[in-house]
């Protein structure tokens, strides 16, 4: 779809705002450092109306934190070509990109003395992914962390953040993608069933930079990942991939904001989720802003949800704000559905048992996204994890 193909009224009927900023614009979202500068939400706010506030309330109240390995432990791989260090609150590029938009992000910025800093230096190409194992050991004590991932000019690197165990965890992740560099970030939320995790991911892309940002949420009682990406210079590209599978009484929420603030940039967002069990809940909100100066933008966002059982609910809200008609294309799509009875009938008519037929449908639903992940061990892990989810519900 291109803007010139549609009238303003037609675009707005599709949920696309066209023109100058309004006070409801995503561009006006309040942001500030300092926990006390953010009120505890009531659930009536637009950005919190889908949230599982009861579950994450202890994090909203937290004004102290712990860095003890008895609560959350970090294990960082050694990979040749990537430097591992730390950054204090006033050391760039930490907190120069991320300005907290909520109380939990503000707490992670304020209460984390030293952020983990991983950097691929200028002109360094690192083929081996670097893994950070983040293991929660105590879900009764609030903990926070800050991570800064960086690729300097003409560098390339892949970072994997793997979250396991149990925790009450607030996390900020900043991604600094330098000019002509390429970064892949894979964040796995593979927590135990009782974990609470709220994360803020912020990326700034330089000229001709490329970012592949992958979020996978499978575990945890309540998980909320806010992702913001901003284009600062022309010619940059971002691909955002998300995969989630919600079970009984599990709440998985993903919110994205792509800020096209520079010309000739491309963004492509695809998130897919499956839900099963009473009280299973997923939320996906995708906001894209194309500013007046972002001529030549090409953007698309897609969310698909597959509801496997009664009692599960998926909310999907795509939004586009467009301030210029001089773009290559802008579109969005969202859908939530159940098993396709015709597909099942087709498979069963060829002698495939119903349970196996259902598994094939779900595998096919996720396979496109899994194949876009360039790390074989992650693809294998996701395939196995989806099989485990299906086995629990269908056996």
UniProtKB/TrEMBL annotation:
Q: Which GO terms describe its biological process?
A: iron-sulfur cluster assembly
Q: Which domain of life is it from?
A: Bacteria
Indicate what this protein is called per its UniProt record. Answer: Fe-S cluster assembly protein SufD
Q: Which residues form the SUF system FeS cluster assembly SufBD core domain?
A: 139-365
Organism equals Helcobacillus massiliensis
The top of its lineage is: Bacteria, Bacillati, Actinomycetota, Actinomycetes, Micrococcales
Stated family: Belongs to the iron-sulfur cluster assembly SufBD family.
Q: Which NCBIfam families match?
A: sufD
